[in-house]
Design brief:
Blueprint lengths: L7 E5 L5 E6 L5 E5 L4 E6 L27 E2 L21 E2 L15 E6 L3 H6 L4 E9 L5 E9 L7 E7 L2 E3 L6 E4 L5 E4 L5 E4 L5 E2 L4 E5 L5 E6 L4 E8 L3 E6 L1 H7 L11 E15 L4 E12 L2 E2 L2 E2 L1 H6 L1
Antiparallel strand pairs: 1-2, 2-3, 3-4, 5-10, 6-7, 7-8, 8-9, 9-21, 10-20, 11-20, 12-15, 12-17, 13-14, 13-16, 16-19, 17-18, 18-21, 19-20, 22-23
Length: 313
């Protein structure tokens, strides 16, 4: 008789780093490393991996883990004076045992609450006091939910500002067979052209070269359609007005030590973010940003996937 594994388990991961495994009764799972508060795995009930993590990812502090869902805080990219994407993704988080319960409409037992507070070293480079609480939850249907709450705990009366992104790497069968729906006709900043502002012209975003764009004032729902796998990822987001779309393509892939030369073909980053307008908190104020990911079968409709059902469902 098989013994049922617990919905939440703390185990040792790669290089002895602590990780939490979340399991739902139907067989879906997720893994979160305390290093970086970093989700590194999200599997459906068939055991298929839905996130991309590079085979060359270095699970060794202080290097950030390449793939999964890195958290960019308190800075996205080099929008500011800190290291690229801030420091939350290469700090050790703690399990938050005295977290006030999140309001939740789910009966899921598969969740973990993590907390990050500034170290003395961090305070030298970013002189603010904060509490960052992160809940990672796996819904009964296999949806993955990340809820971030960041509170200004400064005692000097000073506000602080930050930019933010859930830097999600999705696993796709073939980047040239993928399209992103929900960002049509929107303005974006092109990081490959010194953040010049353009308007998206296509009826869907497809990929044939390097892309690094920050879409502005985006809808709460975005779909990624993977034709070959007949799978659609749906992102639902709250408190995160922007969306980053990134694929390094071949030249940049070869230049990254922690990324395989051909791995760009099997990943796509679509990131829920708050970048263009930074978030400012006065002491005692709290910001909340939520991301919910689901993977649903896509049906073919006259040779095309039918995203309207997904986006309007």
């Amino acid at each position: 008789m098989s013994t049922e594994k617990p919905p939440v388990e703390l185990v040792k991961g790669i290089n002895g780093l602590d990780k939490i495994v979340l399991r739902e009764i139907r067989g879906c799972s997720a893994e979160v490393y305390l290093y970086g508060g970093h989700v590194t795995s999200w599997k459906n009930d068939h055991g298929e991996e839905l996130l991309f993590v590079s085979n060359k990812a270095i699970f060794k502090p202080p290097k950030a883990i390449r793939g999964g869902i890195p958290i960019c805080f308190p800075q996205f990219s080099n929008f500011g004076s800190l290291e690229q994407h801030g420091f939350a993704r290469n700090r050790f988080w703690s399990i938050d045992t005295d977290s006030p319960p999140f309001p939740t409409n789910s009966t899921s037992k598969a969740f973990v609450d993590l907390i990050l507070k500034p170290s003395d070293e961090d305070s030298k480079i970013w002189p603010h006091s904060y509490e960052y609480r992160l809940r990672v939850a796996l819904g009964p249907g296999g949806d993955l939910m990340l809820t971030s709450r960041i509170r200004n705990t400064n005692t000097d009366g000073k506000p602080f500002s930050f930019t933010f992104a859930y830097h999600t790497y999705f696993s796709v069968s073939d980047i040239s067979e993928v399209r992103v729906e929900g960002l049509e006709t929107l303005d974006y900043l092109d990081n490959l052209k010194e953040r010049e502002r353009f308007t998206e012209q296509g009826d869907a975003i497809t990929f044939e070269s390097e892309v690094d764009k920050i879409y502005l004032s985006t809808p709460t729902k975005i779909a990624i359609l993977d034709h070959e796998k007949k799978r659609t990822f749906v992102l639902r987001k709250d408190g995160l007005p922007d969306a980053v779309v990134w694929n390094p393509w071949d030249r940049k892939a070869k230049a990254m030590a922690d990324f395989g030369d051909d791995e760009y073909k099997h990943m796509l980053c679509v990131e829920a973010a708050a970048i263009e307008k930074s978030i400012t908190l006065k002491p005692g104020e709290e910001w909340k940003g939520r991301l919910e990911l689901s993977a649903v079968p896509s049906s073919y409709c006259s040779g095309q996937l039918d995203p309207a059902k997904v986006l309007n469902g």
